[in-house]
Amino acid sequence: xxxxxxxxxxxxxxFGSQKGGIGKSTIAEVLASYLYYEKNIKLLIMDCxxxxxxxxxxxERDKKAVEESTALQEKLKAYIRKTGKRSYRVxxxxxxxxxxxxxxxxxxxxxxxxxxVIYDLPGRSDSSDLLSLALEMDYIISPIEADLQSIASxxxxxxxxxxxxxxxxxxRIKQIFMMWNKVDRxxxxxxxxxxxxxxxxxxxxxxxxxxxxxxxxxxxxSMNTGGVFRSTYMAPEKxxxxxxxxxxxxxxxxxxxxxxxxxx
Length: 264
Ligand SMILES: Nc1ncnc2c1ncn2[C@@H]1O[C@H](COP(=O)(O)OP(=O)(O)OP(=O)(O)O)[C@@H](O)[C@H]1O
Ligand SMILES: [Mg+2]
What we know:
Layout: E1 11-15, H1 24-38, E2 43-47, H2 54-68, H3 70-83, E3 90-92, H4 98-108, E4 116-120, H5 128-135, E5 139-144, H6 148-166, E6 175-180, H7 189-201, E7 205-206, H8 238-241, H9 246-256
Parallel strand pairs: 1-4, 1-5, 2-3, 2-4, 5-6, 6-7
The structure holds adenosine-5'-triphosphate and magnesium ion.
Residues 24-25, 49, 52, 54, 120, 123 line the site of magnesium ion (MG).
InterPro entries: DNA_Partitioning_ATPase, MipZ, P-loop_NTPase
Pfam family, one: MipZ
Protein name: ParA family protein
């Protein structure tokens, strides 16, 4: 009998865009930790950005930072006691093997009840392997920045995915959601509003939550800055969460993607 958590029933959420440096990995990292540690969503990370492996390397930096600091070891021990959870798995694989590697892991670790796999997709879509991996997602979240040149390339990617996948019956992808990132405090919101209309007209999804541009997004465990925001071992700390919109983003995704969030 198939269980709710077997390899075919988990949700695949990809972070994708052909635009480099737009925030795919950063948002995936912060959001994954928030969903896992705070919302108890059982997830697995598949880093398929073979050129950089940003997510996988963040885990390695986290690990090294903890190994080298007794203060961080204490902090983490207290965190594990509080959340009752050990860290989630971060796997890496080449794009053409990513789905297989994730599914094998899930079927070999059924007790982990993984219901979501987050794919950090490579920042390109110029080969059939990369495009077909994107089309194998259930949902793609595609960050955009309110900068005209960057919007054009972000929209082009989303429209390609929509044309090739969302509109074709029989493909796995259900929707691609655009999401404003690096929103400056005093930005003229008219650009975003006019593109919001265009996004809708193209039949693309749009997340209501916009993420602000903030130095918090670079505050890692290894930096010892006091507040931790971006870590694979813990969710952003309470004082860091304020005005980051990460809680709003997590709640919005739980609702629209019907993620199974357990209250502990
Ligand atoms: N909301 C934000 N505020 C400030 N800085 C941000 C924000 N989001 C991302 N950044 C920064 O932007 C840079 C690029 O982010 P990131 O590596 O996540 O992009 P990417 O889309 O994954 O890039 P690539 O295509 O190279 O994989 C990083 O230095 C990151 O810290
Ligand atoms: Mg990246």
